[in-house]
């Protein structure tokens, strides 16, 4: 698989944090990722699933937070995440018109495991995030189904993550190039303990001509586009113990990684970051009081750096792994990997 590192577009600096084994969000123990790709007959879309742990998420919720950098989006479940600070379903990524099908799939899966949901106990807060892949995909086809969401969930696995034009990223573009799904991770050490933070992005943002590579070069795909109308979803996972407010503070630093590449979060851009920790899960029927461990704010800078670095590299990986593709109108979206191979000679 082509990545920013394999093309020489990402070189660790003296102050960079080390990447995890797979340089992926799945380097966080227990986190898995799966894709369902739909392509052909005008379709270029799909679903990507991020599963925080392998138990029953409704019964054992992960603590999480959301940072809405720019809110031009149609996601589901974010209001409750912001209010309660927990995530109780896998996180599904898809296109704008696939949110309803993915939400239904998460609800049905949760009820299968917990028939009391909505009757003898609370309802379920399905978390689905989206970007508009309509430049390439026929989004009016409403192609994403409940079964496609199930397939992405069932495909979720640990280890290496397929990137680029796959799953929810199949029809996405960024900075005028073909883009999609990207991921990266960073290892952190605080005292004698080691932790991991991983970022997975659905990259569909940025004006053509605005991309800035880590070495300062500005690759242009041809014509410079008009106003930014894209979006990016960033999902951050970590095993570092973080308090509720700290989770949102870490999520906010994903914006630094996005901005380093030249984006300014335009009016028409939906830029959303979710962050969850697998430490100290919240039981559905828990005790009256729960003890939560949290890193000292005096040591949280390393998590901020990890979030910014991993998100920046994840976006570059989304761009590098995706092959060139032609949109519905005939517009060509070139591959950043092809540009790099030509200009790195």
UniProtKB/TrEMBL annotation:
Q: Which SUPFAM superfamilies match?
A: DmpA/ArgJ-like
Pfam name, any one: Peptidase_S58
Annotated family: Belongs to the peptidase S58 family.
Name this polypeptide is given? P1 family peptidase
Q: Which organism is it from?
A: Chelativorans composti
């Amino acid at each position: 698989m082509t990545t920013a590192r394999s093309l020489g577009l990402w070189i660790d600096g003296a102050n960079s944090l080390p990447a995890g084994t797979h340089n992926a969000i799945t380097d966080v123990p227990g986190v898995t990722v799966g894709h369902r790709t739909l392509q052909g007959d005008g379709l270029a879309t799909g679903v990507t699933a991020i599963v925080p742990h392998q138990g029953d998420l409704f019964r054992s919720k992960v603590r999480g937070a959301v940072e809405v950098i720019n809110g031009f989006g149609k996601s589901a479940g974010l209001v409750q995440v912001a209010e309660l600070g927990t995530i109780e379903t896998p996180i599904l990524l898809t296109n704008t018109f696939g949110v309803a099908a993915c939400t239904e799939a998460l609800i049905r899966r949760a009820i299968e495991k917990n028939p009391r949901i909505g009757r003898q106990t609370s309802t379920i807060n399905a978390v689905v995030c989206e970007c508009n892949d309509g430049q390439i995909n026929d989004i009016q086809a409403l192609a994403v189904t409940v079964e496609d969401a199930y397939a992405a969930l069932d495909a979720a696995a640990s280890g290496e993550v397929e990137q680029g034009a796959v799953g929810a990223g199949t029809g996405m573009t960024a900075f005028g190039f073909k883009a999609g799904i990207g991921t990266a991770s960073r290892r952190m050490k605080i005292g004698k303990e080691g932790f991991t933070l991983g970022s997975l992005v659905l990259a569909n943002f940025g004006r053509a001509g605005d991309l800035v590579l880590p070495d300062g070069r500005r690759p242009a795909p041809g014509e410079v586009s008009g106003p930014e109308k894209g979006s990016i979803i960033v999902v951050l996972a970590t095993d570092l113990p973080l308090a509720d407010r700290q989770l949102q503070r870490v999520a906010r630093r994903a914006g630094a990684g996005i901005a380093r590449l030249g984006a300014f979060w335009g009016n028409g851009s939906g830029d959303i970051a979710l962050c969850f920790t697998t430490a100290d899960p919240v039981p559905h029927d828990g005790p009256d009081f729960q003890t939560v461990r949290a890193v000292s704010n005096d040591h949280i800078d390393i998590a901020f750096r990890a979030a910014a670095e991993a998100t920046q590299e994840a976006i570059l990986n989304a761009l590098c792994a995706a092959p060139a593709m032609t949109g519905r109108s005939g517009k060509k979206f070139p591959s950043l990997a092809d540009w790099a191979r030509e200009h790195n000679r």
